[in-house]
Design brief:
The complex is a heterodimer of chains A (77) and B (578). Chain A has 77 residues and is an alpha+beta fold. Chain A contains two helices and four strands, in the order E-H-E-E-H-E. In chain A, the strands form two sheets. In chain A, strands 1-4 form a two-stranded antiparallel sheet. Chain A has a two-stranded antiparallel sheet with strand order 2-3. The longest helix of chain A is centred in the middle third of the chain and has 5 residues. The radius of gyration of chain A is 13 Å and the shape is globular. By secondary structure, chain B is α/β, with parallel strands linked by helices. In chain B, 35% of the residues lie in helices and 15% in strands. Chain B contains 16 helices and 19 strands. In chain B, the strands form five sheets. In chain B, strands 1, 2, 5, 6, 7, 8 and 15 form a seven-stranded mixed β-sheet that branches. A four-stranded antiparallel β-sheet of chain B has the order 14-9-18-19. In chain B, strands 10-13-12-11 form a four-stranded antiparallel β-sheet. In chain B, a hairpin with a 5-residue loop joins strand 7 and strand 8. The termini of chain B are far apart. The N terminus of chain B is likely disordered. The chains are: A alpha+beta (77), B alpha/beta (578). Chains A and B meet through helix 2 of A and helix 9 and helix 14 of B. The complex binds flavin-adenine dinucleotide and iron/sulfur cluster (2 copies).
């Protein structure tokens, strides 16, 4: 199946230096109400997989290492 | 994913709660407290730790009935008037009578409310008539506190399961539900003696002006599934034409919030910085004045803080930028808006269904019973008007207790394999499609038509065009395609959104008058018509499976309302000086 690519800026960024997903942390993935975060199979770090964000901040506030930064999605900013 | 396609997991519950936001946790907790032997299952689309409207806490109770400030009778009267008389007062009273006990219980659990120097609750006036707003400047931890109680009570929690259909028995009573996992696409069949719906508002009905599907007022996980679940199970819904429309920070699309700022002296103003309404409590009448101001030469509309002392503003910021929608501060900073200097530009939100704020919900009585035996509803999706967070807690509790009692006296109903098979086919279709329409495109189109045609003021011709477009999109649903379990959840949400859009159109066309200010402002019937329309509009699925409506008389009031008081909310406008 093929969908046309429709790029958008991800409102959530993860600092790979700080993220400790490789040590078993999945907190941000667990708490996101929209379920848009995942641990990347290649990098072993958290990342935003789907651009469906309510800029509500549980991921950022609950991350034990302050690795996550949420910005207001560009269309609203 | 194909290994999951045809196997189901089945399990049994005495009480099944769908939605673990605000009402759901209380329902599950109280069912278990009423009878610890019961198997109580709480099913949540997201994760109960951080889900729903209060995912990140809340900055106050909007409708606290606290002795010394208000009585249950006063509260019932206020909401009867605010909702233009169309209320089932027994349910309002059932809420109001338990409001204070619930505050005390939450207080004991560790939820922090504003107290005065004597340690008494410090309630503020925001409503037109009475005093009901209890601030929670440290309200960020509500969810953690609820979660702890659920664990203590040993409620069984299933996160990341989206309920997609209710199951009913031959005699029409509730038999259980079907749910789909949003990570694995696993299909779950739950047999239950009683089911409590607490799936929140229909928050993805209209499209926010930003065009971002997820930039809604409501938590976007609340896609109206609860309304669709109830409808397909044969329950009656009510007042769906009484839309939810809120005054929000433009583009950010969250509350500013007058309930927090108001008690400190902030107010809604026009571009001249002048007040144009007497009261900032959200009602249809208030929204109509807001709309008129926007349309006039005096718009846009702002929330005005800049006349307040810097210490006061710092205190307000300390609340608004920390709880409920804590990214507000970042938004203002990005635009260089400072409350000390600038008024905050406001606008009108997209439409939705939500009894928590207006009155659109699944019909419930004073025990949270719907019209289907064994099926309950509570919170934003149940029909108790202006019910907000404390209403969700209290009515969740009422539903939980009643469901516990109901399940003691009943057996598990026999499941209908036909219903399960039909739902398996419906929920598997997007995964089986090799090519087709992605959910986000179909959703965008439905919600844009909702804005184009259903947004008030309402015009019947526009509504008929909308119905035609919705019917065409219904034909497209079979072409929805999902590449993974997450996209499957989105595709199934699109079904709910379309159901809600069609219900919004049908109910609005049925009520041939204007009522509730902007919420149901019809251009062809601009006046209120109490002779014909002093009634609820009940919406339900008829024998052919189509949407049908009927009138339901307003039950005789148990708390009388003086004729002179009745129109208080119609007199909100402050006349302009020139
Ligand atoms: C931004 C905002 C600010 C507010 N401010 C205030 C305030 O200051 N004071 C106040 O009193 N009230 C306030 N309210 C209103 C109040 O928060 C709500 O009325 C109340 O929380 C609603 O509770 P609920 O349980 O009905 O819905 P929610 O708490 O939203 O819970 C619904 C739950 O159902 C889940 N769900 C949805 N669909 C499904 C499905 N198919 N299967 C399984 N689970 C599902 C969702 O993930 C969610 O967790 C505010 C609301 C919002 C959105
Ligand atoms: S919560 Fe923080 S540390 Fe944990 S996985 Fe997410 S980003 Fe990484
Ligand atoms: S801000 Fe909210 S919706 Fe966005 S990724 Fe974080 S938790 Fe998820």
């Amino acid at each position: 199946m093929s969908f046309a690519e429709n790029p958008s800026e991800f409102p959530v960024t993860v600092d790979p230096e700080k993220c400790i997903a490789d040590k078993g942390c999945t907190i941000c993935v667990d708490v996101c109400p929209l379920d848009v975060l995942r641990i990347h199979p290649e990098t072993g770090k958290a990342h935003m997989k789907y651009d469906e964000c309510w800029y509500c901040l549980p991921c950022e506030l609950d991350c034990p290492t302050q690795a996550i930064a949420v910005s207001i999605p560009y269309l609203l900013r | 994913m194909s290994q999951n396609l045809d196997t189901d997991s089945v399990f049994d519950a005495d009480v099944l709660v769908i939605g673990g936001g605000t009402a759901g946790p209380l329902a599950a907790y109280k069912a278990k407290a009423a009878n610890p032997a019961l198997r109580v299952v709480l099913l949540e689309k997201a994760n109960v730790k951080r889900s729903g409207a209060i995912a990140i806490g809340m900055d106050g109770l909007n409708n606290a009935v606290v002795p010394g400030f208000a009585t249950p009778e006063q509260y019932v009267r206020e909401i009867t008037i605010a909702n233009d008389g169309i209320v089932y007062q027994k349910a309002l009273l059932a809420y109001a009578e338990r409001s204070f006990d619930m505050i005390r219980e939450l207080d004991q659990w560790g939820v922090k409310f504003l107290k005065d120097e004597n340690g008494d609750f410090d309630v503020k006036k925001v409503h037109h008539l009475g005093t009901y707003v209890l601030p929670m400047p440290e309200g960020g931890s509500v969810k953690k506190i609820l979660y702890r109680q659920l664990r203590k009570a040993q409620v069984l929690i299933s996160n990341r399961f989206m309920a997609t259909r209710l199951l009913t028995a031959k005699d029409g009573r509730i038999a259980g539900a079907i749910a789909v996992n949003s990570r694995s696409a696993e299909l779950l069949v739950i047999r239950a003696k009683a089911v409590i719906l607490a799936a929140g508002a229909a928050g993805r009905l209209g499209l926010p002006a930003s065009g971002y599907l997820w930039g809604t007022y409501e938590n976007p996980a609340n896609s109206g599934d609860g309304y669709a679940l109830a409808f397909h199970a044969g329950a009656e819904l009510t007042n769906l034409e009484c839309f939810q429309i809120n005054p929000l920070i433009k583009d950010y699309n969250g509350p500013a919030c007058a309930y927090v700022g108001g008690p400190f002296g902030a107010y809604t103003a026009n571009s001249r910085g002048e007040r144009f309404i007497e009261c900032d409590y959200w009602s249809g009448q208030m929204m109509l004045e807001f709309y008129r101001e926007l349309q006039s030469g005096r718009g846009p509309v702002f929330l005005k803080f800049d006349h307040l002392a810097p210490e006061t503003i710092a205190e307000v910021e300390g609340i608004l930028h920390k709880v409920e929608r804590p990214s507000r501060g970042q938004f203002h900073a990005g635009r260089g808006t400072d409350y000390r200097r600038d008024m905050v530009e406001m606008h009108i939100s997209e439409i939705g269904f939500c009894s928590g704020h207006s009155a659109s919900g699944v019909w419930v009585d004073e025990f949270a019973c719907t019209t289907v035996a064994g099926l309950y509803a509570a919170g934003d999706m149940a029909s108790v008007p202006h019910n907000y967070m404390l209403g969700a807690f209290v009515n969740g509790a009422i539903a939980g207790e009643h469901a516990a009692e109901f399940s003691r006296d009943s057996d598990l109903a026999e499941l209908d394999p036909g219903q399960i098979e039909a739902e398996r086919q419906r929920t598997r279709a997007p995964l089986r499609n090799a090519t087709g329409l992605p959910a986000n495109q179909v959703e965008y189109k439905i919600r844009r038509f909702v804005n184009d045609y259903l947004q008030p003021p309402k015009s019947p011709r526009k509504y008929e065009i909308a119905q035609k477009r919705f019917a065409e999109i219904r034909d497209d649903l079979k072409r929805l395609v999902a590449r993974d379990a997450h996209e499957l959840m989105r595709a199934l949400e699109v079904h709910s959104i379309l159901d809600c859009a069609e219900m919004a159109a049908a109910a609005s066309l049925y009520r041939k008058e204007s009522r509730w200010g902007l919420y149901h402002h019809r251009l062809d019937y601009p006046e209120r018509d109490d002779d014909e329309w002093f009634c609820h509009v009940q919406l339900y699925k008829d024998a052919s499976g189509a949407i049908a409506c009927r009138k339901r008389a307003v039950d005789p009031y148990i708390i009388p309302v003086e004729t002179a008081e009745r129109d208080a909310y119609d007199r909100l406008r402050i006349l302009a000086r020139n």
